[in-house]
Amino acid sequence: MKRILIVDDAKVVRLVIKQILARNGFQVAGEATNGREALEKYKELKPDAVTMDIVMPEVDGIQGLKDILAYDKNAKVIMISAIDQRDALQESLLSGASDFVVKPFEDDRMVSALNSIFSKE
Amino acid sequence: MVISPERLRMLEIIMKLSIDNASRALSKTLRTGAKIGLSKIYMADFNATTEKMNNDTREMTGIIVNFKGNLGCKMLFMLPLEGSIILTDYYLRQPVGTTKEFNDDTESVAQELGNILASHISNTLVSDFNAKLLPEPPQVHNDFAGIIFSSLVLEQGILCDQLLLIESIFEICKTEISCYLFLLPELASLEKLLDAIGVQK
Amino acid sequence: MNDTPNIFTVGVGDAKITKSPHHLKTLLGSCIGIVLYDPMVKVGGILHIMLPKKTGNDSKLTKYADTGLPFFIAQLIKNGGATRNSMQAKIFGGAKMFETAGNLINIGEKNEQEVRKILKEEGIKIVAAKTGGTKGYNILLDTATGNVECRIFGEPVCIY
Fold first, then answer.
1. What is the ipTM metric for this complex?
2. Which of B14, B22, B11 is CA-nearest to residue B135?
């Protein structure tokens, strides 16, 4: 079962993502509330993929994405954010994000994003 | 600083588009309609507005978001305290009445609703207005309505007696909840943006 | 002036003065509300200051403690018939509110320090104070008695 690290500063968003993952055969590896914590948890838990919010306190999600990819160039990180702007999208994809899901989203959108990155293995 | 009627009209259209997008995102997030009951843009006298709002002692949840970028702007989303408890159940897809009081989940839902609204407002302003605008993490605070409103306008009120306010009311379908959305752009940076896209002074 | 009590509201960075039997009210977050009252002539006022010190050319004196308080005291004496010796002060507000206010972080504490300093210099005694915390204040001055009804958000009403 694939293990996912959930990164979002809002507790209820993490809760909703956890429920979607559980319903669709994924396991939650752990949770983090900003980009700095995300890197720490990534090193500690070695998840198969990460869902990463962008707007978070202290270290934002784009920096978190860059830091995780600097540590592990094969990391699979899906950005999940309400920010739907060209600059954020380009910076995320150029930095190595595997996908970009805009909030609010249907459960299927996130699940297909995860299935798609694992099917490429 | 006074803004010309032509510029005000242009702003009204752009701001309404951004608020429309935000309300659609809110409806989708809550899985119930968030209808815009009123939307207006106006110059407000700081003293008269705060005097009027200081009569409003309703207990509300306020979510303030600062934006960073080339347009100085703040957003306030304010709803009755009981309303934020009901919307927690909507957000978490659980029967209304499950959440009994304002707790960590309620605060987190308020924070996320603020994030969704602010992000979608900024998305529209970035694409239609050539602005660079990203929301910062929202801050949630429960208090009297008048005090929450003052917190939004305080910093600008020190610098200037006239404020440009964009005010909308969202009615949440199947509930009696009215939510208030205020946008407070910083006038000098707004004028620069209007200059850049060639809107007549 | 008629005898039916009216309630007047004070805006942010503003001041109002009235006589018995009228009331004054305001809401306070990080701002400080200074209630001055002269029991001899039953006249009182609320000054709602936003910042400790005036900077720049802003003409509105009542936004700032350093310019607002001397002006407010002079108005109470000149227009209200109060005397400096019998004037009493009560102060409220100065809470820590949203942290999005940039330069205004911790402004409540700085406001209170400046208000206390100026009242001391002006020789006006503070007879009651309720300040700080993280929630807003709803205050109502009754000029017939000088009592101030104060309700902090989420707490019961207290009389000062």
1. 0.91
2. B22
